Amino acid sequence: MSGYVSRFERRQGTVEPLGEQGRTVSAAATEAVSIELRRVEQSFGQNRVLRGIDLDVPAGQFLAIVGKSGCGKSTLLRLLVGLDRPAAGSLRFADRSGNTVEANARIVFQEPRLLPWARVVDNVAVGLGQVIDKDTARVKALMALDDVQLTDKADQWPARLSGGQRQRVALARSLVSRPGLLVFDEPLGALDALTRITMQELVSRVWRELGFTAVLVTHDVSEAVHLADRVIVLDGGKVALDLEIPTEHPRRHGDPDLAVVERRLLDAILG
Ligand SMILES: Nc1ncnc2c1ncn2[C@@H]1O[C@H](COP(=O)(O)OP(=O)(O)OP(=O)(O)O)[C@@H](O)[C@H]1O
């Protein structure tokens, strides 16, 4: 496969990937961003959904947001990726030196939202979001497909893929621009239980390898505890609980220490 470079070679920095016409393509790792929210508020008419959120997320952290349905999780996510502006308060993104930067944020939704008329590799290249030559785009897209272990499906049509494979393509499309912040909005909610566990392992691995800052919204507290360094509970438009998850990655399903944290979070959510 022309221009294909293995993950190992990229991590070791031993190989500069080449486009089909011999151009070098940057395989730069992500520049993770830190996030600072100060007194962030959001309202829809009379509905005051977020009522003064203060939050600091260090660069490279994996944060999960949980809470009852309608508590404002997706509203907060939309602010983080710049889809909406807050009614009040401020958001700031910074690099590891503390300089204010654009977040280069991407979002992974529950539905993969693939273009049915485009092959897998072209669906991934859509995530580059800029006009670059076709060969370079293909090389970058293949590298992102390698991140999710799906290079063998590069020239397949989306309709030929399983639900889990489609979600891996969606993840590759988000990774292809090497975002500093990757936001997951219930990304695994539509998958069966076993595929979900496989996808959790995959998300955890790409996060550890690429080092971006991750924010996950999920209804599944066990998923939050399995993936995140830190979990916050939203309630009444505020951060009602903020818990560090001390266990090392990768984590084992059924770990008793995680079960204790999970119970605490569920108690906070259910009141
Ligand atoms: N565009 C909008 N216009 C009007 N109201 C909205 C809009 N988006 C969200 N809301 C309202 O804001 C509140 C929070 O919605 P949000 O989707 O953020 O909750 P959530 O915690 O993500 O819910 P769920 O867990 O059910 O997905 C709800 O009362 C919802 O009806």
TrEMBL record:
SUPFAM superfamilies: P-loop containing nucleoside triphosphate hydrolases. InterPro entries: AAA+_ATPase, ABC_transporter-like_ATP-bd, ABC_transporter-like_CS, ABC_transporter_ATP-bind, P-loop_NTPase. Gene3D superfamilies: P-loop containing nucleotide triphosphate hydrolases. Keywords: ATP-binding, Cell membrane, Membrane, Nucleotide-binding, Translocase, Transport. GO terms for molecular function: ATP binding; ATP hydrolysis activity. PANTHER family: ALIPHATIC SULFONATES IMPORT ATP-BINDING PROTEIN SSUB, TAURINE IMPORT ATP-BINDING PROTEIN-RELATED. Belongs to the ABC transporter superfamily. This is Aliphatic sulfonates transporter ATP-binding protein SsuB.
